[in-house]
Amino acid sequence: MVSERDSDDGSSRRRLLASLGAGAVSTTLAGCADVLPDGVAGGDETGAVKGDMATGPTNWPAIETGEILSDFETLEEWTARTGELSAAPDEARLGSQAAVVESDAGTAGMELRFPDGLDLEGWDVSMAVKPASADRIIVEFLAPTRRERLSSIRVVPDGYDGWFRMDCGYQQKPGAEPALSNVTGINIIADGSEGGPSKLLVDDLRRTESASNGAVVLAFHGGHDSHYEIAAELLAERDWNAAVPVTPEKIGDSGRMGLDELRELSDRGWDVCSLPAVSTPLPDQPADRQRSVLETARDELASDGFEDGARHLFVPDGRMDATTYDVARDVHESTFLYSAGTTSVPPTEMHMIPFIWGPALHTGVRRHLNISDQYDLLTVLRIPRIVDAEDVGVNENRMSLDDFGLLLDHIEHRDLDVVTPSDLVDGTLDLDGDEPPVGTRPSGTVLEAGQSHTFEGTGSGESPTFDLDDGVVVATVSHDGEEIAVDVTKPSGLGRNENLLTTSGNATGESIMAVDDDTYRLEVDADGAWSIDLFQPAVHADDLENLPIEASGTGSAFVGPLWTDRDVRVVATHDGDGTFIVDGSGADGSREVLVHRTGEFSNSRSYKAGGPVWLNVEADGDWTLEIVDS
């Protein structure tokens, strides 16, 4: 049930409007009737559903900003895909009725079609949902067909059956490149238990203007020493702030930051957020006990000087039911819940903001960040304790320093804004929305010739230190064993390694990497004799190949230099059983990991290129690349 606080025009609505910020569309419900005039059958000239829009008070999670796509006052424009579709007058969030789709089977779905197309370029979509019997809610945007669709998937917490607002941040782009300027349909699907039933209530489907740039929240769970000693230093170099969800009674414990360290970070602009300790999951406790747990943790943090951060809750154990949700909305100004997917910047739903597992860099995190970049969305990442790669172990609650460095590089290369929970709530987002200019093809010399070095050895070991100049370095490796892996590190840095080349079953291999003017060392792991030649070639404008480009090979090699105006799309295949890695390196020193998988692979990836670039391939089998303009 929604409390009286949720159904009036009072403080909860003012908080929501403030959280959306000045840049959000401020069209009122009455105004929506004006911007949705009579047009083609089933929609206006924008493709939105026409007709008399609902007016009057709204019940959360219906909102009053943006433009209504469907208020469900009539269900004539909707069609049941699976199951049955009907009105739910007693559940109305907006107007006189909501809609309910239900089935005795494992899925129930409904669809809305836009014959003349709906323009969602520069818009975010959200809706009020009540998962009466659903494990997942899936929203598909056909742009313009199902082959070019974008999917939003929200995992419903176990036992949650109340209303909340679902921001339809995209999570999957399974086919060809979608065209959001021509969305011909929206599918809403309730995915229940395997044997059924499935049931979902929906209301107030609308679009609000999207942000001018994508964003990231980095949440350093637990406040470990490595978050202060490693992460804070690396973020300070980039002038970034973050969130530190902590349990008040664990502050200063062995291996964790104390009050002095947390206060220093808070003074820099970090949010020290609430992560209450619970011996019993919150949904298994009565409402008054849940409230006491949340209020106690919040107040302890506030008394320690962390008033701003204490407003934000990270739900322990990933458990939330409708009671927890209502209590959290009373006690906190934002709530983060382990789930999946991207969301709007800022979210219209501030109390079920999804965050994902940061160490899954190569199995989802980069994809979420790329989608946030392309569609101006928000990704929230949970970062555990940061350790050396050899200390991560299997299924450990840790992240390697190497992967953490790659994560920061990827965020920086994608030009995503790193923000805090307080930025979302207070509307202090300063997003850099400038569109990158189309590159001008260079003339003459792109890179001057640089340094050259040769190293030889047997088995595993380290090379002497050596210097490189800004640009790229090409490595030619030969060995007489079965496997060799060559990493590059900066001895003066934090001990972070980057893989230069890994080859198995091939006597030779080539690799290329973007580098800067610094001192380096090679770390070699091999089972035989080896030699490594490093050189920094001169690159001239006449060397740059134009897209599209098709390339193929076996083992380790690279493609380029290529000329790219802006972003490109890379279609890659691999038929080997081992690791398959595709990196992009730019003449400006940039680097982006495009593919990092094991075994066979056949898929496409976006690459934020622009300028002269190379694609580096590490493989143990045959591979192909097709590189085209995005």
Strand content: 35-45%
- CATH class annotation of the largest domain: Alpha Beta
Summed up, the helix count is 10
Name given to the CATH homologous superfamily of the largest domain: Glycoside hydrolase/deacetylase
Q: Rough shape?
A: globular
Helicity range of the residues? Answer: 10-25%
Radius of gyration: 26 Å
The number of domains is 3
Tell me what the CATH architecture of the largest domain is.
Alpha-Beta Barrel
CATH topology of the largest domain: TIM Barrel
Low-confidence stretches: 1-52
**Average pLDDT for all residues:** 89
Structural class determined from secondary elements: alpha+beta
Number of strands: 41
Largest sheet: 6 strands, antiparallel
Q: End-to-end span in angstroms? A: 47 Å
Protein name: Polysaccharide deacetylase
GO biological process, one term: carbohydrate metabolic process
Topology (elements, then pairings):
Layout: H1 4-7, H2 11-20, H3 29-35, E1 67-70, E2 78-82, E3 84-88, E4 98-103, E5 107-118, E6 123-133, E7 136-142, E8 149-155, E9 164-167, E10 183-191, E11 198-209, E12 215-220, H4 225-237, E13 243-246, H5 259-268, E14 271-274, H6 287-303, E15 312-314, H7 322-331, E16 334-338, E17 353-357, H8 361-375, E18 378-383, E19 385-387, E20 398-400, H9 401-413, E21 417-418, H10 421-426, E22 445-447, E23 452-458, E24 461-462, E25 466-468, E26 471-479, E27 483-489, E28 497-504, E29 508-515, E30 518-526, E31 529-535, E32 539-540, E33 545-546, E34 549-554, E35 557-564, E36 568-574, E37 579-586, E38 591-598, E39 601-607, E40 611-618, E41 622-629
Parallel strand pairs: 12-18, 12-21, 13-14, 15-16, 16-17, 17-18, 19-20, 33-35
Antiparallel strand pairs: 1-11, 2-5, 3-4, 4-11, 5-10, 6-9, 6-11, 7-8, 7-10, 22-32, 23-31, 24-30, 25-30, 26-29, 26-31, 27-28, 27-30, 34-41, 35-40, 36-39, 36-41, 37-38, 37-40
